[in-house]
Automatic annotation (TrEMBL):
Repressor of the lactose catabolism operon. Galactose-6-phosphate is the inducer. It comes from Granulicatella balaenopterae. Residues 3-58 form the HTH deoR-type domain. SUPFAM superfamilies: NagB/RpiA/CoA transferase-like, Winged helix' DNA-binding domain. InterPro entries: Carb_Metab_HTH_regulators, DeoR-like_C, DeoR_HTH, NagB/RpiA_transferase-like, Tscrpt_reg_HTH_DeoR_CS, WH-like_DNA-bd_sf, WH_DNA-bd_sf. This is Lactose phosphotransferase system repressor. It comes from the Bacteria. One of its GO terms (molecular function) is DNA binding. The lineage of its organism: Bacteria, Bacillati, Bacillota, Bacilli, Lactobacillales. Keywords: DNA-binding, Repressor, Transcription, Transcription regulation.
Length: 254
């Protein structure tokens, strides 16, 4: 079992019980003491757990963002399915923005065969994967600014906005930490502001969000749902979500 698999196993156990001892974790996972200690330190450094007096406590604040490699492996099947729907919104010659989320990341394989794309992204992993597919007609721009720890994303600064303002962005493709009937949320103010800035510049915005994010409310609002052209998930939400989307003339696809 590699580190990502171990971390996801620990997160699932801690999320289920909220609080448990190191001894319990060791008995349930069969991880060695040294391996378990290293993995718990890693989770604590990200702000996802607190260790005290031999107990592991899940942090419930909505301001913690897990590392990219952890988020990437979560709900991977659902994210790939969502990306397979979103690709149909992208055509040759478009200028698009891809955020740093692991859901939007799953679109990149579909872009290899689309000619003359101009792509902006604040995702370090996304930019690298796009470069690796080596479509010679594609132009890739990564936004400048501060690299956010763990998330593999770049938080934009003013000089980045000056660059992007020279381009007409046809489509912004973004994900989020959560959604309710009225708003879309992020885990940090900087992420929320970065996505809102891009949405304000783009002609249209797609929201890609899997069903685990339904009714997940954060402290930081990105935008109200009427600012999105369409929302794509792997399954439909409850009727109150759909009624709200229909009221704002937002298409919900699955």
């Amino acid at each position: 079992m590699d580190k990502t698999e171990r971390i996801n196993t620990l997160i699932e156990l801690i999320q289920t019980k909220k609080c448990l001892s190191v001894k319990e974790l060791s008995q349930k996972t069969f991880f060695s003491t040294s391996t378990l200690r290293r993995d718990l330190i890693y989770l604590e450094n990200q702000g996802l757990i607190t260790r005290k007096h031999g107990q592991i406590v899940l942090n419930t604040l909505k301001t913690n963002e897990a590392a990219h490699n952890i988020r990437k492996s979560a709900n991977r099947k659902e994210k790939k399915y969502i990306a397979s729907i979103a690709k149909d919104f992208i055509g040759p010659g478009m200028c698009i923005y891809l955020d740093s989320s692991t859901t939007v990341y799953e679109i990149y394989p579909y872009l290899a065969s689309i000619e003359n794309l101009i792509i902006f992204t604040n995702g370090l992993n996304t930019a690298q994967s796009l470069a690796d597919i080596a479509n010679p007609t594609m132009k890739i721009f990564i936004t400048g600014g501060e690299i956010k720890h763990f998330s593999s994303s770049v938080i934009t600064q003013q000089f980045t906005n000056d660059l992007i303002n020279h381009f007409k962005i046809d489509l912004a493709i973004c994900s989020a930490h959560g959604i309710d009937q009225h708003f879309v949320y992020e885990t940090s103010l900087s992420q929320a502001m970065t996505k809102k800035q891009i949405m304000d510049l783009a002609e249209e915005t797609l929201l890609l969000i899997d069903s685990s994010k339904f009714n997940q409310v954060g402290f930081f609002k990105i935008n109200s749902i009427d600012n999105y052209h369409a929302i794509i998930s792997e399954k439909l939400p409850s009727s109150d979500f759909l009624d709200s989307a229909n009221m704002h003339d937002v298409e919900w696809l699955c």
